[in-house]
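Lab meeting prep.
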Amino acid sequence: MMKKLLIACFSLWFFSSYAQETYYVNGVKDERPGLHAFTNATLHVDYKTTLESATLIIKKGEVIAAGTNVSIPKGAIIHDLGGKHIYPSFIELSNNYGLPEVKSQRSNGPQLGPKKEGAYNTNDAIITYFNAYEAFTAKDSEAEKLRKAGFGTVLTHNKDGLIRGTGAVVALHDGPENEIILKEKASQHFSFDKGSSTQDNPSSLMGAIALIRQNYLDAKWYASQNEMVDISLAAFNKNKAHPQIFEVGGDKLYVLRADHLGDEFGVQYIIKGNGDEYQRLDEIGATNASLIIPVNYPEAYDVEDPFDALNVSLAEMKHWEMAPYNLKMLKDKGINFSITADGLKDVSKLQEMLSKSIEVGFSEEEALKALTITPARLIKMDDRLGSLSKGKIANFIITDGSPVQKGTKIYENWVQGNGYKYHDIASPDLAGKYDLSVGEQEYNLMVSGKSGSEDFKIVINDSTSYKLKSDIKKQLISLSFTDEENESIGAVRMSGWLTKDGLAGKARIADGSWVEWSARKNADNEESEEVKEKSPDDEESESIGNLIYPFVAHGNETKPKSETILIKNATVWTNEEDGVLENTDVLLENGKISKIGKNLSASNAREIDGTGKHLTPGIIDEHSHIAISRGVNEGSESVTAEVNIEDVVDSEDINIYRQLSGGVVASQLLHGSANPIGGRSAIVKLKWGYSPEEMKISWSDKFIKFALGENVKQSNWGERNTVRFPQTRMGAEQVFEDAFTRAREYEAEWKSYNQLSKRDQANTAAPRKDMELETLVEILNSDRFITCHSYVQSEINMLMKVAERHGFRINTFTHILEGYKLADKMKEHGVGGSTFSDWWAYKFEVNDAIPYNAALMSGEGVVTAINSDDAEMGRRLNQEAGKTMKYGDVPVEEALKMVTLNPAKLLHLDDRMGSIKEGKDADVVLWTDEPLSIYAKADKTIIEGTVFFDREEQEAKLDAIQAERARLVNKMRGAKSNGKPTQKVMPKSQIIYECETEIQNYSSLK
């Protein structure tokens, strides 16, 4: 039978020494000086300075002496710690302690303007005027949880909105707010999450970034003018003097986005990350940002059911394994960071999380640094917090060991010289094996863990059949249990005390008689446990997989690098006057097409046999929505030219790799079609494993998305969406007219200002810089070019006339399913067409679409491309181009140009891309068959001389993925069998964006 003794320690009480009261007290005032001396301590003055047999003296909440030869002042209360440890209390930089709860709200319909009345910002997500110290109310129940975990100070701040106002540094003491607020305005806070605002704008991540960017520009303008009052901008300008902290959410790429935004305005943010920074260490290290790092490491997934295991991605599995390594890898990279408990469901788990990181190589010293002096420095309070030198605030914890190791007991936490007691310092360490006697009955007793801790338990005779209760107070102990196997003993109630050899006392048994009991210690648990040999499973559990770039399936352990490559004996489709060259060699060197010819040779080149294969320029997708984070539409307003897809490029999207497998080398990532004038686009090369910045084609011209038709007038958005202008096609025309009229007036205003002399400019307020109008002026001056979502002939004609009236031209009509009706007018205007091969009848305005559209536009002399607008179609654009041969008898070489050279022309990339010509970028695809055949497969996709997809390696890569998944599944199963907590598998699906994808709750997306 199993017998078990469950121990619970009820030794918690509170005591404090009072500082001088500066507030109303109903009763007798206690004005004692709070003078305490803590002696015989192992004193950790800071994270790297330890003094043995030391003394700490505090008075009125301040350290007045700390050292080994310290005289104890007369009248001090002496606390003999008997060798216990004193550490500085921890500092938490990411918490909203003591602030009003942020309540999520639901909108009853479109909300175009702000709800907040007064001279404030026109967007409810800009809350710069909020000051945490004004709204702060101490809540001891919340403070108690943090104190028990070792925290003494919190930077409390509003966790709502994009720009959130100022944070206040507060002590976790239960005194009056007047005394525990240590610094009223210590920081200004930012986020990409608009929070509780129900205002439509922003409805996307790029919209949030644009709004913050515009706020910076407005604040600069506001400081130079005296014509208006804006409480929000005035507060923002004042708050710029404090440390700027950005809570990014999302993943590691958001750290890069925040830093990039700060760089635009000369601001170095302190960035609260997400715990996955190890996945992009080089890029994050290059930001030079200090980070606030959570340690909410994920639990293993419950993958006992093999079908459940299929619903856990490789990235999720690998992050479970590698998350505890994050701190060590950040430290090894030389990145400065503090640690936060934010994100933990239970702050008491902090020690456990830190122990995991320490087990894999992160040092205790660095953990202490990241919890004490580093956060103090980040908020410019290291003169008062973070260590226990003379003059510092008396915030410290008393422990029986390192507070960053699991199982360490925090006896007391002193905050501003006020003590909070959680365990009796005099309570002994009872862990070990005992011989227990109760009267004539003998038992084997084992005590494990530390009294008062969660893992403290007593087991009798190696069994758990009996439930036992205990109460330990100082040197006294009470136990009770029932021995159901021995009627003469039965229910036992024991009371005793500590002895030299263990425990002893009196017990009353079932028949009411009193007997003696004793427990004599015979071994420490560690000494008595047998050393177990490691099993293969144990060895497996200690292994760890490799980092991959990007951190998803099909990522590479090293980033692919450019090579010198000689492709021999291929059929080369040049897209130039040379046409198709049989049995031809192509040399790729230094990222360029170096030579084209026969019998070429090159030293140190990697030779690829192209015999029987076909080499073409890489496919270019003029219209794509892959690789975009948290929303493809900013549809909250009719004109959103200020938003930019470049801000939200997602280098981790698996669709990048999938499209590489279909021969795509570059894409224009477009805003959606929710409004007449949408956002600016990003033109990228699909460099799998590289960062977003490395993917962008830096030398390309700039583009923007316009839209016409049903989406613009919200035809299919439901009956609630009848507020935002326009609601008709003729209204869309007026949006364009109004926008470009305002842009001309804006340009004239700036020209007038810029023509002033320097002296006059110094005495004249500059016009307000408006990112929306700046972008429209770029269009007017042919510095930015339009790709317009279009279907219906009348609207296509209308927009060309609007452009001509304002002196510019439309660059590309995309979709353009009725282009065949006015191809002559398109030719005359000079606009290209990027269309689908054979999509039609999926909504009313495409009923007149025909599969001959591309052939008819091309025949009229319009530069015509075939695009995807769809992640799945994007990897078979070669076949889509092939359809034009069936519908319209387009020659094969011209059909190929529709997905290579023609989109390059439409995107103004054709001087370097779109054809195989010496000097152009080495962006090519080697196909297994004729490139437009349904049997053709991309054998190798090469960008700038770097092989990003290799079909020969694909089978080995799939085997490696399967093996890695199997290893991680076994490791998770092992964690579960060893009693570790697991989480339920929740299937996740990726949102595949298209033109019409409109997401309101963008904060819930990656």
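Slide two material, second protein:
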Amino acid sequence: MLALVGVYAVVAVGVPWALGRYRRVMGCAAALLPAATAAWAATRVGRDLTGRVVWSSDLGLVLDFRLDALAVVMLLLVGGVGAVVLCYAGWYFERSERLMIGTLVAFAGAMTGLVLADNLLVLYVFWELTTLSSFILIGHTRPDRVADRRAATQALLTTTAFGLVMLVGFVVLGEAAGTYRISQLVADPPGGVAARVGVVLVLSGAFAKSAQIPLHGWLPAAMVAPTPVSAYLHAAAMVKAGVYLVARLAPGFAGVAPWRPLVLAVGLLSLVAAGLVALRQDDLKRLLAYGTISQLGFLMVLLGNGTRTAALAGGALLLAHGLFKAPLFLTVGAVEHETGTRRADHLSGAGWRLPVLAVAATAAVASMIGIPPLLGFVAKEAAFEAFAHGGWDVAVLAGIVAGSALTVAYGARFLHGAFSGTTDQGPDDPWGLVVPVVVLSVAGFALGLVPGALQRLIGPYAGTLPADGPGYEPAIWHGFGLPLWMSVIAIVAGAGLYGAFGRTFPGRSARWWLPDVQKGYDAVVGGTMATAHAVTRRLQIGSLPVYLGVIALMVLVVPGSALVAGLVRGTGPGWPAPRAWGDPAQLVLAVIVIAGALGAMWARGRLSAVLLLSGTGYGMTGLFAVHGAPDLALTLVVVETLTLFMLVLVLRRLPERFPPRLRKVPARAATAVISLGMGAFVGLFLMVAALSRSSAPVGPGYTRLAAQEHTKNVVNLILVDLRALDTLGEIAVLAATAMGVASLVLTGPDVRRPGRAGAGPRSRWLAAPSRPPLGGSSVLLEAVARLLTPTVLVFSVYLFFAGHGRPGGGFVGGLVAGMAFVLRYLPGGRRELAAALPVRPAVLLGGGLGIAVATGAGGWASGGEFLASRKPGGTVPVLGRVDVPTNLLFDAGVYFLVLGLVLMILTTLGASLEEPEEPEESEAAAEEPS
């Protein structure tokens, strides 16, 4: 199942890249994967499938997935509606929208992962991915507009903030139950205060995600997004995530004290209040947005009630809502596309111009208000039946009938506003925009005709909840019972409400009775920003020594005091007496490290301080070597050398000497005390940690594993075999760091002069002539660099292949390869580097990360762990049998990514640090004969 989510990531990048010039083909090609997902789910109706991907079995880190009846319903909705919306998007956008299509596919993948997740923490990860996708989709189309950015930020902040609250609830429930697996948690839920607190926190996140009052303000604001986004995220998929979470946990937690009153109260308030606001809207998308909030409240009531009949009704309405609300949003998009407006008070005659669209939209509204035999009618009949048993259910039933009457009223207002009036223009339906609406409306009609299919689809999930009466099954006709009369009352009352309040355009405001949540959100954000500014002015004073001092002081106060208290209580009896050193070389190296640190502290020149700090680093390299860690020593010496080169480059833009010390004696004394305290704490902590070992060291275990794998380099074994997924996370951080460095360094005006050769947009990468970074050009240095570079590159390749049995590996090999290009850069500048490497560093970064991900994910695809060991190969003439183990391919990804990191930093620093040529030199170079 994780492989299915991974395919979405590949398609999200690959399809827009390959077909970006053909917007219609791109949209339909991207729709194939969601359609295939829906088909896959449909073939597994009635089955309960599980999957598990082991991240780290020793730490209990696993990714659990499950496909059951509720997941099948959601996948049919996410995949089916998603496929139709993506095809619609290909005709809706007037130009190629690669980012929009790719992000829509990525969102579909995140929703698929959310639905299949059987672990609370995994569900949370996909939950936040849907939030991030929504932020991109809302704010991308017109990023220059303040309203769009504001709406995207509001959606992000609201759902993310309450998502963090929900995460706390997940932790509370998971720790109380002793498991984070959802199926086990629901089967054996915890009790007591932990369960009650966890339920409230989780429901808060669900209410925010599904835009329940009073956390609903972000959804109407999000209507600035393009119509395909509104139809998919804000009608059929994203806003269903909160409802889905409530349905997923209801079998286990509906009986917990605050669950049912909280869900019913919030759901009924949203159902009725949002319906009233929808009845006053003139903007058709905002009308549908408030209608969506109302219907989501209805779903909360049904799926959170915790009874079998309500769950049947909720599952049916879950499908029905996607099949009538998504086509209505698409209808608004088509009307706006053809007429240039979506305001009902400005429209006239759209029904005559778009007759097929009008008929399809009417069918969708009929399903929404509950006209037989459409799916919406079947769902509402079941909903009325679920609360027709007296007691407190009567109040809930009255609220549902009132909400249904309002649905009839604003549904009629939508049709009147969109399609009423006359026009002189003839019929002209844009079929690329109309067919998706017809497909979804017909699907809602067809499913209403086969209620038995609904029973087979939703029944297994509803069966996990307690029965509230005789076995009820969805049907078009149950006779002249209470549910039918409730439907009649709702339709008649709704028609009356429409006649009294819904026929006039523009509509009157409903703000006089409903609090303005937008002002509340603005007040919260404004107060938070004001507080942050006030705190920042007092704490962020712009002094790096002060910041470091505060951090160090907190370390001394919290863990330092705990360490000292433990030693005072005598937690370490029987410790062996520590030895000062085990080898005379350690004493010599320690003196070098201490002398370098003290010298750097007292040095007044920046270059002297850098050299002394590098001496400290090289001394640490020697300590690694003496302790029998040549692999770490080799890596550190290369890192220190590269760091020295980079710092020297940066120093060219800084004053030669440090500014005079202006701090007073008390400040210098405090600095000395904190520094000595930190040194004592670190030394004492390391000594206590080394002498307090109570368990056997893990090293021998890794050594035995290395012997089984026939390797002698235990460090490389850990990095690319035993902890490959952790290594993947680390190199992903390196890639992000490289991009961050590039964005920070290159932010601002272009370092190249407009008049210089190569300054145009089609210039070759770094091909413009430039001065060397350390002064004038030297033919001797350039010749030596060109001679040494191939040798160093060959040595880096040797280190890469030798890493299995000797010191080396992809990481240090990539660093050494970067050293080779540093040699070319120092005497010749960017011109020489461009001649040596005509490949963009970003290609190496992305390619290396892609190789590592693809190699490791192959293990998951085959049903094993990440980077499951394989040794594919074959017979090569002359060489004989050649095997290429998967860990070698993974290490190759690390090699290329590290090389790309070094080159990215080198080129971005060079772009900003190299001195521009003088105008006379440029003119002379331009006049030289070619």
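Talking points for slide two:
The chain has 35 helices and four strands.
The radius of gyration is 33 Å.
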